[in-house]
Specification:
Layout: E1 2-9, H1 18-26, E2 37-41, E3 52-56, H2 65-69, E4 75-77, E5 84-86, H3 96-100, E6 107-109, E7 114-116, H4 122-126, H5 132-136, E8 142-148, E9 172-175, H6 195-201, H7 212-238, H8 244-258, H9 279-300, H10 305-325, H11 342-354, H12 357-380, H13 387-407, H14 411-414, H15 419-441, H16 447-461
Parallel strand pairs: 1-9
Antiparallel strand pairs: 1-8, 2-3, 4-5, 6-7
Helix pairs in contact: 7-8, 7-10, 7-11, 7-15, 8-9, 9-10, 10-11, 11-12, 11-15, 13-15
């Protein structure tokens, strides 16, 4: 099967920006943000390192991550041209597609509260014309061609610095640099700075798309989710007394907070429109089912433990869905696991509340190993490790509950007041600390970040 594709010659692009102007002119009136951007490799002109420009917009992938992950089913793929299109009337403004796309193609318009992106000039393509960016390129660096959609890595055989091959079958093909052209010594910047200083000055990394400040509502929602699942597990397993109205109230509060970041809050109901492929849609439906069944069980059906266990099962499946949502932003941890995953948190807290040594010990060991490994990896990568916070997390989250558990594993059944209540609070605080660090460590790969990482690899390889 074939679709239209961009053909890009790295040897011809001068970084003039004509493609950006052509795109904006063609889409004037429906485009508020630049849909195309030029990235420069080796901006500071390090001697003996290649210098080139990369013009990027939406690559209209054969397997687009934006379409697969959008919970509102706002994306579609035109079968005639291969263009990936977003319907602005369906978009929630949740921004999840901006996390999922490694090419930074979906752009969030804060004024409109929705996503906008390159539409491949679909109307021009249907008339047999090339996209405006292609027509505007004065050097023929950007052309239009046909792309054979196959399987596997053969869809993108050329490795280009700044371009992430994420297995999405992007509809772009590159003509690589001839002999890895390098900046000659004579054209390098004056030697008033060392190469190291030049390199450091080029690390103009953009602000991360995921921050604690912007995602605190989701942090609260996911934390409440695993706490409620653990509490219900204890209610079913050891008849832990739980007020059903407080339980339900916290769940509703969590759901309300999860909608705060939406650009179009009245469209929140559309968040379950893509259950087939979106983990975000599945998570919302599962949490709603968990909360509803749990409330009914606690209020009316506590004599029927089968109903409670069904709710517990749905709750843990929901926690899996929560963790799957963030896989697109996981940059640390072995096997894509993290000590702050809500699934592990739910089991750990449930094991502690029920006094189950196997669940508590097993989940705790996994979490501790993952936590220590992550701190070692972050230190190796020269990223923030927060030693004081880590110390408090280990003390309150692991050491103190372990001591209490070994001293009296049945304490939860006899006394949840006073010191034991404080210990449980400490466990929860420890988990929330870990969850907070989790959000602080999430990172989205973009062309700019990929280019900076690749630049450092080239520098190290060449001994710069």
């Amino acid at each position: 099967m074939k679709q239209k594709a961009f053909l890009f010659d790295l040897n011809r692009c001068t970084g003039c920006g004509a493609c950006i102007i052509g795109c904006y002119t063609e889409n004037y009136g429906k485009q508020d943000l630049n849909w195309r951007e030029i990235y420069t490799f080796n901006e500071t002109r390090h001697p003996q390192i290649p210098l080139f420009h990369l013009s990027m917009a939406c690559n209209h992938c054969a397997s687009p991550a934006c379409l697969e992950n959008c919970p509102a089913a706002a994306y579609s793929k035109d079968q005639q041209t291969g263009a990936v299109i977003i319907n602005p009337d369906r978009c929630l403004g949740c921004k999840y597609c901006t996390w999922a796309c490694p090419y930074d193609a979906p752009r969030y318009n804060a004024d409109k509260g929705i996503i906008e992106k390159c539409d491949f000039c679909i109307e021009r393509l249907k008339k047999g014309e090339a996209p405006a960016c292609v027509c505007a390129c004065p050097t023929n660096a950007l052309l239009l061609g046909d792309f054979d959609i196959t399987t596997g890595s053969e869809t993108q055989p050329v490795e280009v610095e700044g371009f992430t091959n994420a297995g999405l079958q992007p509809a772009i093909q590159f003509k690589p640099l001839r002999n890895q052209q390098r900046v000659p010594e004579s054209t390098a910047p004056p030697p008033n700075k060392t190469v190291e200083e030049l390199f450091e000055s080029s690390q103009n990394i953009p602000q991360p798309k995921i921050t604690l400040k912007s995602e605190w509502t989701l942090l609260t929602f996911t934390s409440i989710a695993f706490i409620l699942v653990a509490l219900l597990t204890a209610a079913v397993a050891i008849s832990l007394p739980i007020n059903p109205f407080l339980f339900f109230g916290f769940g509703i509060l969590a759901m309300a907070l999860s909608t705060v970041h939406l650009g179009k809050k009245p469209r929140a109901f559309r968040a379950v429109f893509n259950l087939k492929t979106s983990w975000l849609s599945r998570e919302i439906l599962l949490f709603s089912a968990f909360l509803g069944i749990s409330f009914i069980y606690l209020l009316f059906l506590s004599a029927y433990p089968a109903v409670g266990w069904a709710a517990v099962l749905i709750g843990f499946v929901n926690l899996i869905a929560v963790d799957r949502i963030y896989q697109v932003a996981m940059q640390v941890g072995p096997w894509n696991f993290h000590s702050a995953h809500t699934f592990f948190n739910g089991f750990y807290l449930a094991g502690f509340l029920t006094g189950n040594v196997f669940i508590f010990g097993g989940a705790g060991l996994i979490k501790l190993v993952l936590y220590l490994y992550r701190k070692w990896l972050l230190k190796k990568q020269k990223r923030k490790t927060h030693p004081l916070i880590s110390f408090l997390r280990i003390i309150f989250g692991f050491i103190v509950p372990l001591v209490i558990f070994v001293y009296n594993p049945d304490f939860i059944k006899s006394n949840i007041i006073g010191v034991y209540g404080l210990v449980i609070g400490g466990v929860i605080i420890g988990e929330i600390i870990d969850r907070t660090e989790y959000y602080d460590e999430l990172d989205i790969i973009t062309p700019r970040k990929q280019m900076l990482m690749d630049l450092e690899k080239v520098r190290r390889t060449d001994g710069q």
